[in-house]
Amino acid sequence: MLSFISLSSKSNTTTKCEQDFVLLVESALRRELWALKILDSWGKPLPSGLLKGNNLWVGNYDECLDPLYQHDNKTFLKQTFDGHYCALLPRGMKPQQTMAYGLILGICVPSSCDRQSTVSLVQINIHDMCLDASWYLYNDMQFHWIAPLALIPFVIGRKPIAFIVATLFVLVGIGSILGILLYYPNMEVNRITAAMQTTGPTFYEKIYLTPWCRISPYAIGLLTGFIVINTGRSYRLNIYTKIFGSLLATVFGLTCIFVMYPDYAFVSGLSRSAIIAYQALSRSFWALVIGWLLFLCSTNQGGIVNTILSWPIWSPLARLNYSAYLVHTIILFITIYNQTIPYYFQPHLIINSYISNLFFIYVAAIVGVIFFETPFVVLEKKLFKR
Questions:
Q1: Which of 4, 279, 370, 372 is the most core-located residue (most Cβ within 10 A)?
Q2: DSSP code of 234?
Q3: Entry's SMART domains (predicted)?
Q4: Is residue 354's pLDDT more than 60?
Q5: What percent of the chain has pLDDT over 90?
């Protein structure tokens, strides 16, 4: 970076930002206190706990912005220019990957540096996305477009065709993931290493985002609805079938949650074959668990689970869930990028962070529903006379 600035200086094409940055470095080399203060506010490389998730090298926000107070003469140290705090992502990282796996580095640059000049100085990539969670919306829309292929036969009495089409959707989802992972043998499938992959086809682009790899849970939802309608809400399972199905659903659910733990906890990890099987089947198995629960509750066989899920308190939250999904990453990014000190993962801190983030997410969701969703719902009712 310094060589880049030096070359720019010789070619007389330096910006005010680059000139201030050269001054900052030269002043620090002369051990001037104001420059050392600015550089000291940077996030430091290789802090303790890196392998345990300490990847937010945020530095010191307040030290970057505030002038240094000198206790001897009770005055603030005069600076040649003010500091400007920036949070940077490494080259190749996408914003969606930074929260769990990526590295965030806090730096303090001269106040004359804008976004583009800072990018030029440190040579990073910037990825813009208006609403981070909106990537799933086009998946959902395409699922709604093709759902009539199964819904229409069911409505007109061709129920076997409806079940066959929905089952084919499930197989397409599973087969797509399996086929892509077999076709690209070098594609990373471990979530941490996959997030760091910057060359060649990536798991995120080829599998995580694509609708054909995500249709299985949606199709299992269709099948669940077909079964509930076909059997009727008065249908009753015998006690042994219900116990066996519930135990099997519990095993499936716990497997989906904990089967990947050895891959993170042990050096040897899981084999590639095991991870491919997990990626291909986990979402479908989880959908089966939810489908079984919905079937039992819809036929009034859910017991205490049905009682809890029928509490009136869930009704307003259900109306907010979609907006909460859309805004949740914004709240999380605001929380992360406004941290002024490193975050250390401890059980009580995680619980505190989860509860506070959940609260603010639903507050933001209420605002979104009131000012955006509700007006369009009212307008739709007026236009279509509903």
A1: 279
A2: T
A3: NRF
A4: yes
A5: 29
Q: Residue 98: name the closest of 153, 51, 55 by CA.
A: 55
Q: Which range is least confidently modeled, 41-55, 89-103, 229-243?
A: 89-103
- Under a CB-based contact definition with an 8 Å cutoff, are residues 283 and 214 in contact? yes
Question: Which alpha helices (DSSP H) does the chain contain, by range?
Answer: 2-10, 16-29, 33-40, 61-65, 95-98, 115-122, 137-146, 148-155, 159-183, 191-196, 203, 215-231, 239-258, 261-265, 272-298, 304-309, 314-337, 347-368, 374-384
Parallel, antiparallel or unpaired: strands 56-57 and 69-70: unpaired
- Beta partners for residue 56, in sequence order: 104
Structural Rg of the chain based on CA atoms: 27
Asked if 118 and 72 count as a contact pair (C-beta separation under 8 A), the reply is no
* Amino acid identity, position 246: S
Output 101 or 187, whichever has higher pLDDT.
187
For 264-285, letters b (16+ CB in 10 Å) and e give eeeeeebeeeebbbbbbbbbbb
Count CB-CB contacts under 10 A for residue 202: 21
Query: pLDDT at position 357, please?
Result: 92
Distance CA 299, CA 238 (A): 13
Mean pLDDT score of the chain: 81
Of the pLDDT bands very low, low, confident and very high (cuts 50, 70, 90), residue 125 is: very low
- For the packed helices 148-155 and 137-146, what is the interaxial angle rounded to 10 degrees? 30
Q: What is the mean pLDDT of residues 31-47?
A: 77
Q: 253 pLDDT exceeds 90?
A: yes
SS3 108: strand
